[in-house]
Amino acid sequence: MTKRLKKTFQALLPIVLGVFVLYFVYRDYDFSRIGQVLMHEVVWSWMALSLLFGVLSHVFRGLRWEQTLQPLGEHPKKTNCIDAIFISYAANLIIPRMGELSRCGVLNKTDGVNFSKALGTVVTERIIDGICILIITAITFLLQMPVFMRFFNETGTKIPSFAHLVTTPWFYVSLFSVLGAVILLYYIIKVFGLPRKIKALLLGIWKGIMSVRQVANPPLFTLYTILIWLSYLLHFYFTFYCFDFSADLGLLAGLVMFVGGTFAVIVPTPNGAGPWHFAVITMMMLYGVSNADAATFALIVHTIQTLLVIALGIWGWLHTCLTSQS
Predict the structure, then answer these.
(1) Is 112 helix (H, G, I), strand (E, B) or coil?
(2) How far apart are CA 265 and CA 177, in angstroms?
(3) How far apart are CA 238 and CA 53, in angstroms?
(4) How is the chain split into domains, by residue range?
(5) Residue 269 DSSP one-character state
(6) What CA–CA distance (Å, rounded) separates 130 from 236?
(7) What's the start-to-end Cα distance of the chain, in Å?
(8) Residue 66 contacts by C-beta under 8 Å, 6 or more apart in sequence?
(9) pLDDT tens track, the chain, 326 positions
């Protein structure tokens, strides 16, 4: 397989995977109802409030990132850190997980930040975010254990029921998603595992990882972390109030679907397209929402949130270009 063919395969795999899962989830859906819902049923004031928290989550992440770079002797502008975050999320729509690299590249260009050190701080962020989502998941699981048990049963992921596991179609959706993640991880490791690069890269990454121990203001770093995840939750939860059929679901239902959606976007598809829809639709149905309404909710919310990511990415890119020329 030639290098160009490998790169093409890497770029197309997440898209193909997302399309496959979306087709499976929406193969019987009546798309004619989307226009009616958008024109007459969506409460746009709640959607605007949701999008505000989507923007704030990126802003807080940019401000927190700037804190982790300071102990390394790197002092980028706060606005450049925020723009880099905007660009990174948009880059993930093209090639999933490419955003982590692109934001380091942006700061290297705008502020001369060492790339490998910046990448190390990104690794630190991911570790911290992983701990946060595990804590949120544990709390949510304890509060809504029956709902999670029903989800596992109805999607064929109940461990004792192996026969049911391999016969349910949802199992194959999950299987293809996991395979896609493993293949993408393999190519990332292969690219960054080149002998001539690995030593310097790992050293810079290690310095970046250790930078969190030396942040100048740990309470502010902790506050930013809380605000990031609170903004993520509210970004999703406020969309419930955009539709009559979901307005009464409540915060606990929001937490359950937020957790499910967060794990779903780990699968390397553009913005979690496909796996996110599957997780949210399935969990929403557990709370009594019809399949058609749940599918409508997931399709509209995910599309609008993806458009926000694109708009912020364009803004970040334009703002970076303008400020670098001034």
Answers:
(1) coil
(2) 10
(3) 9
(4) 3-325
(5) S
(6) 19
(7) 45
(8) 76, 78, 81
(9) 566 666 666 667 777 777 888 888 898 898 888 989 999 899 999 999 999 999 999 999 999 999 989 888 889 999 999 999 999 999 988 877 788 889 999 999 999 999 888 888 888 888 888 889 989 988 888 888 777 777 666 655 444 444 454 455 555 566 666 666 666 656 655 655 544 555 555 565 566 566 667 787 889 999 999 999 999 999 999 999 999 999 999 999 999 999 988 888 887 777 888 889 998 998 898 888 999 999 999 999 999 999 999 999 999 999 998 887 66
CA gap 123, 104 in Å, rounded: 11
Return d(Cα 188, Cα 64) in angstroms, integer: 26
- 108/87 Cα distance (integer angstroms): 14
Tokens of 306: 């993806």
Q: What six digits make up the tokens of 94?
A: 């093209």
Query: Rounded to an integer, what distance in angstroms lies between the CA atom of residue 119 and that of residue 100?
Result: 7
Provide the sign of the torsion angle of the four alpha carbons 154, 155, 159, 165, taken in this order.
positive
CB 96 within 8 A of CB 270: yes
For 39-67, letters b (16+ CB in 10 Å) and e give eeebeeebbebbbebbbbbbbbbbbbbbb
